[in-house]
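Bench notes, bay 3.
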Amino acid sequence: MRQMKKLLLPLTAALALTACNQPATQTPTAEAENVVAPFLDTNHVARAMGGTLEWNKMEGLAYDAGSRTLYIAVTAFSGGMSDGQGDIQLAKNPCGGIMAAQLDEKLNATRLTTILAGKPSADGKTCDVGGLNSPDNLFLDKKGRLWIGEDGDDTRNTLWVYDLKTKALKRFAVVPNGAEVTGLRISEQGDLFMNVQHPEPDNAAPYHLGTVGVFIGFNANTDDFTELPYDGSPLKTFKFAAGQYQILAQSGVKGAGVIANADGTASTSTNPDANMLLSTGSDAAVLYSNWENRPGGVSRLDLKRVGGVWTAQGDPSMVDFAGVNGTWNNCNGSVTRWGTALTSEEYPTEDDAGWAKAEPAMTKHLGKKANRYDYGYITEITPRAGGQSVAKHYAMGRNSYEMALVLPDNKTVYFGDDGNMRGMYKFVADKAEDLSAGTLYVAKLAQVDDSASVTGKSWNVSWIKLGHGVDSEIGQAIRRLD
């Protein structure tokens, strides 16, 4: 612990500035090791540098290249966003909403506006069933509609479709009791993938298990649908407006979501999260699915599309993360234009008490003493014949990352940062299609009145440089903390 303090403390603005000015190729020394502080303790350094650290549960992202608009799901306007202090001062809204960030020609977000929000009840404790209730997953289809999955009240979580042109919000599906909508992804062919995460075990089969699946007979890029009627009553099964739901994998079935420990024991996750679909040829793909537990995991399922139906080619397998000392809380994710998957790790421990509770399970998983600074990163998975390679990108910072989304320049990355009192971050890689080195930034917001925003407020955005990082150098510093 003494060595850890030497590396990361004191986390002051002065030290953070020193870190930013250190040459990226410098070999770390005892005097210069604070160069890695922005990448191992990102949230604290960002606050010390003057970033806006007030967001509450910034979740999924979607990007429209034509209008250079980044869409951001926010679970609730609460916590640091509604405490009447700081850079974000909004009325409390437990139902959350969707924000739109306008990007300039260099892909810097410059303006942030709320375009859609849920409708809280008079007592502020519930949300109108006809509107948003804690949005989480986002995906933009080719028709210009924004698909929105919820993770709020676990008796009525809904998959919505929001038409950005007409402003119409339509309900497509409602998941059963206890479940969240996760894994939202639309393939090039228009196939809608989504998961049913942690349903109640007493739901009607098969929706008593965590489920990975895809809709068939409905093209999410082109087809319209009649809205699913729903009165808010708890459901024991999965209801949807169009197509058929095809189950691809379920918790514990044929090894899906089974996370092995070094001693031969294992745990089974009921929390399938992101679906990351990578094409491997004509009507062939690899589907990576996150399993959000601690320790966490990612399953792989090889798929073939025949007659418009995706069929599993063999049983699911779990990705081996031993080379990066495991993963945890694998939450949302994305795919890159160069054919890789990005899985994220939520809720890294940022205090000793939190790590004391988390460490035994991770040590058991690894079969050796776990290091808290191995968790809280974006990990890139590259499929290979018969397997895959994995790389944790320490240069992208250590945070409660909901997901990372790479923009069309293949260099600029934006993040969802889940939790309270968090920041808005971006990363710019040194080279296109290479996330192993680059510069990390945090946003500084300035709130202004805006009648066009559904909250009456918007924000001008500026960016503060936290530092330039290289995976290999930061990885070496982490190993000195073992």
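Next record in the batch:
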Amino acid sequence: MAYQLNVDSTGLERGIKGSFAFPVACSKSSTNINDYDGHRFECHFHPEPELTLFLSGEMYYQVNDRVLLMHAGDAVFANSAVMH
């Protein structure tokens, strides 16, 4: 089964991470990009900032108009309301 992000027509990701008082979500399990349709995430944004740590492999990661080649051990921070 392939997954998809739940985004509206503007790219806003639907759903709430954490709570209003503490908008943080953390998972001990990793998300494998290969489990998503087309082996990619749709570009999206949300009100919460996002920190992504790349555990293995490599992938291109887009933040606004910048495309970064990320490798295992790299991390990227996308601020709130930033398309990524």
